[in-house]
Amino acid sequence: MDVRFLDSLLSVVAEGSIIAAARAQGLTPAAVSQRIQALERELGVTLLDRRANRAEPTRIALDLLEDMRRIVLLSRQLKARAAPGEAVGKLRLGAISTMLTGLVPPLLKALGSRAPGITLEIEPGSSAQLFDALLEGRLDAALIVAPPGAAPERVELVPLRSEPLMLLVPPGAEDMPPDACFRRFPLIAYDPASWGGQIAARYLADHGLAPKVLCTLDGLEAISALVRSGAGASLVPHWPGLEEAQPLPGGGLYARRIVAALPRAPERPACQHALVDALTGVAG
């Protein structure tokens, strides 16, 4: 069975007529009609109800459409994977929560204009989870906090952002220095088990600050909401979209580095190159 014939049938169904489908596919109406007839002979059923200026799928064709679409899609994906020199196909991209809201939206727009043949399948998670998924081959790239240690040689880390540590305080406490702030308010801790949270914990230790801990969270958006409610104060990186945070003395020395983690030997170099090009364009 020729997949191109299935594609022509799907085009007729979508366009409503053989003439319109031929125009959309850059073929003659006779060529499209011959493809449909060949399919009908092979399957032994009538697939189109042909009228004067219309062509509608028969009942059996409607029953088969989902499978036909799946076959055509798989065929396109197979061709994309077999053509590593072309920037087409699906990329599995992992992203931490602040990058999902801060970097992924402009990335999608940039890729749409630079490499429209690429489709992103996005997976959220923590930096450690996504890095492990990349090492195991379950992701093609990951937008994460830079690993605390040296990355394996088979992984490339492309710098995207440097986010200095900031002081997040409840409304009305904006002029308080960190030591006075944490004497008055409990700490809503950025989880020290996370890679970004380790940086905040190191700042507290280096500056002799040992506030009472109200709770520990890995979600920066949730931390920000709790601080706004007056529940406590926190130390957080200056992620895209963060508002009303106070500069922290020496905070630039405790910056959270955001990187794109990528395999050094990708299956589809052209796709990876297009992704990196788009990322560096929107992250700058």
UniProtKB/TrEMBL annotation:
A GO MF label: DNA-binding transcription factor activity
Species assigned in the record: Pseudooceanicola albus
Family: Belongs to the LysR transcriptional regulatory family.
Ranges for domain HTH lysR-type: 1-58
Keywords recorded for this protein, A-Z: DNA-binding, Transcription, Transcription regulation
Protein name: LysR family transcriptional regulator
UniProt xrefs under Pfam families: HTH_1 (PF00126), LysR_substrate (PF03466)
Domain of life: Bacteria
